[in-house]
């Protein structure tokens, strides 16, 4: 009689694969964010201000750029007080009777658009030139880095002023107002590319000596493909940190240029333009016209800057506490 075979051990069910969201939430970056109160507060503040600016046409009480909605008799109304028309403005009104809260929301849209576009332009230009200089080396590396050294020896705001002035001299007078924002983006972006280029160049010089680059060369992969498909992903960490900090600087530079009267036109006021207007009435008692736009600029720039400082620590294991 054949012996009965021993019962087979039950096969344990394989653990279900974790979803992408769960893996992302438990990653080092999000773990650092969850345990960093300053990063949490700054990210929430920045996200709130950005969403408020983006959704301004839907959440703003008034359209400050529609002359039909303006009440000149409501000018210089203090915050929280009823104007002559009976309307209560939370942040008060300016000299033209415009609701200051609505004006700040719409002005933040211009400042954020210029800041994001200028940062994207400077990052694209700087990363491309830095990657080319670091991977190629030779005369191209020398020329690009010497140009970057010369540019870094001058304040970015002076370079932006120079570029803006030259561009305004080239553009026909009848098109200057319509192209003012794009000229401002070009000027700020061209004034801040050197930091990206120097950072990417140093990282690319390290990466090109590694084995995976040598293996790609032996396999006959073209140089541009190695640089952009293999080297570039490994140098993006510092680029993200610089981009975050550069965004705050670009917003401040746009506000500075607009405050000096060489930024966006009066028909499209930004935070800098609102601060310039409010400064004229500061010593006459209408403090809110300057205070609230300046507070918005400070909160926006400070929150983005603090977020960039946290991101620098989170992406660099040597700086983690």
Question: What does this protein structure show overall?
Answer:
The protein is an all-alpha fold and 321 residues long. It has one domain: MetI-like (MetI-like fold, Orthogonal Bundle). The protein has 14 helices and no strands. The protein has helices at residues 20-25, 28-34, 37-54, 56-59, 100-136, 138-152, 156-170, 180-191, 193-207, 211-218, 223-231, 236-259, 271-279, 288-315. The N and C termini lie far apart (70 Å).
Q: From the alpha carbons, calculate the radius of gyration and give it in angstroms.
A: 26 Å
Along the chain, the helix and strand elements come as HHHHHHHHHHHHHH
The total strand number stands at 0
Calculate the mean pLDDT score and round it.
Answer: 84
Largest sheet: none
At the first level of CATH, the class is Mainly Alpha
Roughly how much helix do the residues carry, as a percent range? Answer: 55-70%
Domains counted in the coordinates: how many? 1
Q: Any idea of the CATH topology?
A: MetI-like fold
Shape: globular
Alpha carbon gap, first and last residue: 70 Å
Helix and strand composition category: mainly alpha
Uncertain stretches: 11-17
Assigned CATH superfamily = MetI-like
Strand content: under 5%
CATH architecture: Orthogonal Bundle
Total helical segments: 14
Give me a quick take on this structure.
The chain is an all-alpha fold and 321 residues long. It has 14 helices and no strands.
